[in-house]
Amino acid sequence: MLKAIQVGVGGFGLSWFELLQSYQQAEVAAIVDPLETNVQAALKRANRNVLSFDRLAKAIEKVEADFVLIVTPPTTHADLAKTAIKAKLHVMMEKPLTDTLEEGKALLAFTNAHAQKVMVSQNYRYHPQIQTIKALLDQQVIGKVEYGDYYFNRATRFGGWRDEYADILLQDMAIHHFDILRFLLEKEAVEVTAASFRPSWSWFKGMPNAHVDILFEDEVRISYTGRWAGKGRKTPWNGELRLVGEKGAIELVDDRVYMYKGEADEPTEIQLQTSLLPDRLLSLDAFVAAIRHDTVPPTSIEDNVKSLELTWAAIEAAKSGKKWTC
């Protein structure tokens, strides 16, 4: 069984720690968090002896481990990952890869000089709805995808660092959906135009709402609308998606997948794929397999920096009001 050092056990980190208590392929040997309240909350949920530290360097000195799991604010990702890699530990981290594109590219260059695996947990790829759509596309049931629409609408009050981000929707939430699009289409973005704004009632200091038009390779066009200080009918976290090809369309609505043949008005609902593990553990499973078999994990830093590039293309396009080339 592989051993992990988990950095960050507050908030979402605590839910990661709880998930790992039932995971059979790896165990948490130590946790790292500067806040004692976070540490104590995690230790109360541990089903085995777990050591605790306030800094990653201390944990590395005292604990034998195979990898580091980073669940901290994005501003800390690059330094924590470098500390782990220098100690010859593999790294898996929550998205986004880094706080800025420049940091992401610098971290990629750093990792290229080392043998350790570095992966970002883009867990939405492993949602059963997304896996089901990918299987349909792989079967060419609608032919070549030519265009699509993506819509996301929620009102989520996190508090903490997310409330301070300048481009909170695009940087922290839309990156999930952009990564889904890259995964489903197996294409990269070429051009991006975007606009973002902050409604008067928003609790976010930055821009929680945006519209993004993305031109992917092979002239595939996607129109994306995201609202994180939204009103009216809310979407699931996956959002709602329509992909259209010459043979029909696939739609994701309320976390249910539908297929339309040709120009039919009535769809067929598609049974969702199932898995024995939740999406985040499927992501971790892929990472563990990559370590054991010395393969490239599916959302490796080399792959994930492209989702980060698309995200920052949207941010820059929104700020400048100009078309951004990827």
From TrEMBL:
Residues 7-120 form the Gfo/Idh/MocA-like oxidoreductase N-terminal domain. GO terms for molecular function: nucleotide binding. Residues 134-323 form the Gfo/Idh/MocA-like oxidoreductase C-terminal domain. InterPro entries: Gfo/Idh/MocA-like_OxRdtase_C, Gfo/Idh/MocA-like_OxRdtase_N, Gfo/Idh/MocA_Oxidoreductases, NAD(P)-bd_dom_sf. It comes from the Bacteria. PANTHER family: BILIVERDIN REDUCTASE A. Belongs to the Gfo/Idh/MocA family. This is Gfo/Idh/MocA family oxidoreductase.
